[in-house]
Automatic annotation (TrEMBL):
Name the record gives this protein: Putative enzyme related to lactoylglutathione lyase
Native species: Allocatelliglobosispora scoriae
PANTHER family from the UniProt entry: CONSERVED PROTEIN, GLYOXALASE-RELATED
Pfam families xref list: Glyoxalase (PF00903), Glyoxalase_6 (PF18029)
GO molecular function, one term: lyase activity
All copies of domain VOC, residue ranges: 9-122, 136-246
Amino acid sequence: MTTTFPPGAPNWLDLGTTDVDGARDFYGEIFGWTLVDLGPEAGGYGFFLKDGKQVAGIGPATDADRGTSWSTYFATDDVDAVAARVETHGGKVIVPPEDVMDQGRMAVFTDPAGAFFSSWQPAAHHGAELVAAVGAMAWVELSTTDAAAAAAFYPAVLPASARDIEMGPGMTYTLLNVDDHAVAGIMQVESEAPRWGVYFDVADCDAVADRAISLGATEMLREDSPAGRMATLVDPQGGIFSIIKSNPDFAP
């Protein structure tokens, strides 16, 4: 499945890792990804491919404090304007808007609670070529200690709107909508460091989770949810990611 990405929707993921070769082997084994290295001029950056289509990026970790981590990028047609709105509404610009060769223009931010996120203004590179398919991005979700503040911040800096839904007794979940379609979620947590999490579709959650653990991953949780069976794992280099066997009948 290929797609286009309206402004405000997540259009790219990448992994900054302390061990590119180790991550290549790990994710290749559990998702069937292959790695295309873009060469020295790209600073060690490359593309993960699934069935020949770009699903995510990978490169050396550049922030010692973050270590290995997945990053979520949101589409925009004006990354400089996003940066200005982030500062106006209490976030921080960590990497100011910059051109990435002929591929596009990007910036890195934190929201008022400290969660990292990025924005991508496409040029030659439009974003992921495969989503909502096995081995590709299924969903992105912000875990934060102040969901109400996040639900105000992100619609102010992205062209999105916030909508609450009930996910169970006493559990409210916030969706970010673009063009009346849910593109991301916001979940209230009590003590975790705020972060954007990435979910990848799998055909069998338990089999993939077990295989990941056998390759050196650790498990944070595994459970059923209305959206499907899911697990959150930490890769051998310390990067947190989630997998989900999506429930086709779930329509948030």
